[in-house]
User: Which sequence fits this backbone?
């Protein structure tokens, strides 16, 4: 016993150490991370973000240097907080809060203290920074907007948040990321790739050389410049025309699907979302729930399309063979069907054939055509689904696949939709129950982008390219194949002639005759859509939306456009005029109808928009 | 007296283990002390060059030790011991303060740490006393005398202050036990240590309750076997234990300094303060842990190269092994130490003279306690107690102290079968 006690203890100790070492070195791998955090620092080289040009090569967005004050909480030493806060122009409590958050995020990784100082502020700051251990200045590139429009197209860039960092390891606290518009859509192309230098440091955080002679280091890759399909002059003009109005303008080139202008109002100056005031301004925009400047009405606004939809009703009728272009249909102040109240129509001559029906926007004509197309099939369910199939081929009722990160599906109802609505088979429903669809009211909802798309398909007599906003990426020849693929509609091209003619007559002698512009042959269709809001839980009708879709010239069209003005009353009043001006601006570069331009530029609908909030009873459509 | 006439037979296994440990130690000191200025191997301002010089001088020392006859050590044990004590006392008057401890004599740029040599001297004196024909460790006054031999150098070392080196002398209880000291002393020592730790870990209240419960349990178990079991005896022991716990608490809170309390608390997991007090241990664990199976490679340890572990070329040298050579390198070193200690134990057992057996046991015990405390500390199992890893840690005095300690025994062993 006496001989073996020490031996025994020695062996036990050996076992103890072996298992302790096994635990530390093999089982528990956390030390590897701690050791890397200790000694290996990543230093990033931020690349230049790509520039953005318009279709004519005009520079829209470039970069400007900005300087962030950063902190690595672990390295902070006691400091004169008051003096430092004064230097950074923040309060002591803000400072404490920022530091607390930074510490919680990571004691070892850098966090932003105050972002985006200008070059002048930087010069002053950099002299004093050495006094504050753990703080340093990180240079970054900020956006420099050369124009004060197109905020909805560009989107904006902002600091990444924790969720993004968790999802995407590329980003780190304080990095910038595109957050809407093309900045988001083409983030990876625009941002490039940051370079990483792995640096080995000692325990005083002094650099003792590059880690493993730099074999893991990478060079930054600059972001690529991109050219948009936007025409800067047209875009700017569109935003001017919509001042004091709410709505959207979207123009595309029918032959290619390139978006020439994408205007939404209310909007804001993209420059507001750069620099120190960014978050203040953003909050202001975000909380403006009345004019909703961050809401892209062209992409996200779902509206009843109104009369322009009649062109599609006519096309489906022709394709289904339920009507020909010559048949005359009479209108007795509206469309009379089962119910007690007819679907009303305005005053026009009667009866009308198809071209006249379009030119005069006769409700009775299109209700008849719609009903026949549905009732051609044994059940209304089949009829509706067949009708929907045609509309889908125009890109309606679903996301369109354009290259912008915002959008809505719109609504083209299916048979299931009505089955649920009317509790089929408990209750039956017939084509007449959906009759309002014929004239673009009822259940149908489209975004202005979808309206312009079907207009372009009509302009092309039966096909379209998906609308897109990227013209090209510098040094890359091709764009996404989906934007160079032609999509054919289910309507034979021979049926488009009469529709185009009808739309031409709208402009020539119909509902939009008074917006005629000398020398340009426009095909258009007015729309006036009823709409409602809720005030104190009560459904209240507001002044109609003013809608106009058009393309020009009639043959070999260069531009298709959809204009939507909220509560602008009848179609040609605002939307028609604006569409005319836009088309002329694009095709001729200058405006001949100065009277029309003055009307639009000086006109305001603010009074109209204030009505529902006034708390008083008000009249509409006046 | 020099040049023995007797043929000697060296134990080459021990010598091989010694060479292996010293060499591996130097390789790691090279890495731990590597810096930008490391250009020439013969730059005597560099730690690794100095250590190489110390190793070379050890060879000279070894030759001297082996050349001296065994009888010399036996005869002069007491004188060597007294000289050693005097050198420790002399520190109070002539000592040189380095890093807050007055443990060195300074002669020019050369420093000398007598406590490193006092261990061998004490082992010699203890062996001499215990092997004396008149000494009987069953007798109380002999036990006290043996204890005084052990405790004296420790008493002089503590106020330097160097409590770590003082703790080493505790190990000399093992040779005493081997030579007949009652087991109760070891058990007592163990209970004292265990109570000390658990009191600090769980608090006095729980421990008091625990002790009472265990005492009652033991009392009734024994009562069944033996009707005459005295309740009084149990009560006294229980009260003594609780009293001890209270005094531990008292000493811990009122006698020990804050830094000592901190060290214990960190190991007991009560305080996690990796930035300040626990920095050494934490960084050392990170260094070792990040080594993985096979380590980062020589001179490739980021912890080592970044000097994150303080005292890495001395007390924390093992963390370099852990980081750069990984689990495999670490257990190799652990096994080498185990092999050396066990080999010395085996040799001690085969000694014919009690004198050399006691000495051999002392050598094994001293090596073991250094190994145990140092690796325990570096791997975070024990509180921070600053004692070097034998043959590994940088330092001339340390290396020579251990070399003398070990080779005197090798010398004894070499002639043991002829002696007496």
Assistant:
């Amino acid at each position: 016993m006496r001989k073996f006690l020490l031996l025994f203890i020695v062996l036990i100790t050996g076992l103890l150490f072996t298992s302790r070492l096994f635990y530390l070195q093999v089982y528990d791998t956390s030390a590897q991370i701690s050791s890397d955090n200790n000694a290996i620092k990543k230093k990033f080289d931020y690349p230049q973000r790509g520039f953005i040009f318009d279709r004519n090569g005009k520079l829209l967005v470039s970069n400007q240097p900005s300087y962030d004050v950063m902190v690595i909480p672990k390295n902070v030493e006691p400091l004169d907080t008051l003096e430092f806060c004064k230097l950074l122009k923040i309060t002591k409590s803000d400072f404490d809060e920022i530091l607390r958050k930074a510490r919680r995020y990571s004691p070892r990784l850098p966090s932003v203290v105050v972002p985006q100082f200008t070059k002048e502020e930087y010069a002053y700051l950099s002299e004093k920074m050495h006094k504050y251990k753990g703080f340093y200045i990180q240079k970054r590139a900020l956006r420099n907007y050369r124009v004060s429009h197109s905020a909805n197209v560009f989107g904006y860039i902002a600091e990444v948040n924790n969720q993004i960092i968790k999802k995407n390891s590329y980003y780190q606290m304080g990095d910038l990321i595109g957050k809407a518009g093309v900045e988001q859509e083409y983030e990876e192309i625009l941002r490039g790739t940051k370079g990483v230098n792995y640096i080995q440091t000692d325990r005083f955080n002094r650099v003792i050389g590059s880690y493993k002679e730099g074999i893991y280091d990478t060079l930054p890759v600059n972001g690529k410049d991109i050219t948009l399909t936007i025409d800067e002059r047209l875009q700017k003009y569109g935003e001017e025309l919509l001042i004091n109005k709410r709505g959207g303008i979207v123009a595309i080139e029918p032959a290619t699907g390139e978006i020439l202008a994408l205007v939404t109002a209310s909007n804001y100056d993209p420059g507001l979302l750069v620099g120190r005031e960014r978050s203040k301004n953003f909050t202001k925009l975000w909380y403006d729930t009345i004019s909703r400047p961050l809401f892209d009405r062209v992409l996200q606004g779902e509206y009843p399309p109104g009369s322009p939809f009649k062109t599609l009703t006519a096309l489906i009728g022709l394709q289904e063979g339920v009507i020909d272009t010559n048949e005359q249909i009479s209108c007795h102040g509206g469309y009379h069907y089962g119910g007690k109240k007819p679907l009303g129509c305005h005053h026009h001559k009667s009866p009308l054939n198809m071209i006249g029906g379009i030119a005069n926007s006769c409700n009775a004509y299109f209700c008849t055509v719609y009903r026949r197309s549905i009732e051609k099939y044994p059940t209304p369910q089949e009829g509706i689904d067949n009708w929907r199939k045609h509309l889908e081929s125009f890109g309606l009722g679903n996301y369109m696949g354009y290259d912008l990160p915002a959008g809505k599906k719109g609504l083209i109802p299916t048979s299931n939709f009505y089955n649920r609505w009317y509790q089929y088979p408990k209750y039956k429903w017939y084509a007449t129950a959906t009759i309002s669809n014929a004239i673009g009211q009822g259940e149908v909802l489209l975004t202005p982008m979808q309206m312009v798309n079907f207009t372009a398909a009509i302009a092309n007599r039966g096909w379209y390219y998906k609308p897109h906003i990227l013209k090209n990426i510098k040094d890359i020849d091709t764009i996404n194949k989906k934007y160079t693929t032609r999509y054919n509609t289910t309507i034979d091209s021979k049926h488009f002639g009469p529709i185009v003619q009808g739309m031409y007559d709208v402009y020539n002698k119909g509902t939009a005759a008074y917006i005629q512009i000398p020398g340009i042959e426009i095909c258009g269709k007015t729309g006036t859509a009823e709409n409602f809001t809720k005030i104190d839980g009560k459904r209240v009708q507001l002044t109609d939306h003013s809608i106009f879709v058009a393309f020009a010239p009639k043959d070999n069209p260069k531009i298709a456009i959809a204009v939507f003005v909220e509560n602008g009353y009848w179609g040609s009043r605002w939307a028609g005029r604006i569409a005319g001006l836009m088309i002329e601006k694009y095709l001729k570069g200058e405006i001949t109808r100065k009277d029309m331009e003055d009307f639009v530029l000086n006109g305001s609908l603010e009074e109209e928009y204030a009505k529902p909030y006034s708390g008083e009873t008000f009249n509409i459509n006046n | 007296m020099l040049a023995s006439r007797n043929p000697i037979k060296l134990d080459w296994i021990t010598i091989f283990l010694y060479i292996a440990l010293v060499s591996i130690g130097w390789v790691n000191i090279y890495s731990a002390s590597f810096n930008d200025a490391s250009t020439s191997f013969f730059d005597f301002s560099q730690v690794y060059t100095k250590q190489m010089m110390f190793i070379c001088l050890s060879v000279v020392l070894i030759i001297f030790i082996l050349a001296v006859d065994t009888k010399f050590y036996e005869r002069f044990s007491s004188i060597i011991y007294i000289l050693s004590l005097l050198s420790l006392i002399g520190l109070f008057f002539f000592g040189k303060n380095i890093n807050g401890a007055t443990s060195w004599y300074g002669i020019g740029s050369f420093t000398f740490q007598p406590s490193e040599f006092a261990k061998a001297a004490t082992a010699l004196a203890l062996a001499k006393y215990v092997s004396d024909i008149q000494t009987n460790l069953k007798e109380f006054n002999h036990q006290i005398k043996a204890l005084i031999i052990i405790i004296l150098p420790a008493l002089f070392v503590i106020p330097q202050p160097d409590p770590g080196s003082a703790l080493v002398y505790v190990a000399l209880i093992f040779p005493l036990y081997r030579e007949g000291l009652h087991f109760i002393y070891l058990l007592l020592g163990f209970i004292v240590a265990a109570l000390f730790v658990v009191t600090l870990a769980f608090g006095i209240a729980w421990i008091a309750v625990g002790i009472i419960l265990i005492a009652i349990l033991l009392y009734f178990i024994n009562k069944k076997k033996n009707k005459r079991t005295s309740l009084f005896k149990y009560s006294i022991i229980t009260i003594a234990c609780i009293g001890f716990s209270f005094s531990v608490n008292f000493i811990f809170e009122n006698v020990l300094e804050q830094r000592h309390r901190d060290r214990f608390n960190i190991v007991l997991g009560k305080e996690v303060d990796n930035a300040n007090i626990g920095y050494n241990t934490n960084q050392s664990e990170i260094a070792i842990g990040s080594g993985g199976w096979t380590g980062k490679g020589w001179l490739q340890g980021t912890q080592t190269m970044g000097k994150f572990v303080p005292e890495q070329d001395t007390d924390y040298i093992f963390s370099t092994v852990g980081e750069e050579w990984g689990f495999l390198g670490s257990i190799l070193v652990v096994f080498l130490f185990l092999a050396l200690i066990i080999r010395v134990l085996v040799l001690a057992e085969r000694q014919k003279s009690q004198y050399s057996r006691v000495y051999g046991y002392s050598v094994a015990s001293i090596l073991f306690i250094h190994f145990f405390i140092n690796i325990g500390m570096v791997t975070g199992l024990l509180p921070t107690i600053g004692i070097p890893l034998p043959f590994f840690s940088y330092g001339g005095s340390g290396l020579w102290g251990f070399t003398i300690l070990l080779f005197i025994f090798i010398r004894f062993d070499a002639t043991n079968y002829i002696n007496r």
In short: The radius of gyration of chain A is 32 Å. The mean pLDDT of chain A is 86. The interface with chain B takes residues 2-3, 5-7, 9-11, 13-14, 16-18, 20-22, 24-26, 28-32, 34-36, 38-40, 200-203, 208, 211 of chain A (CB under 8 Å). The first strand of chain A starts at residue 40 and ends at 45.
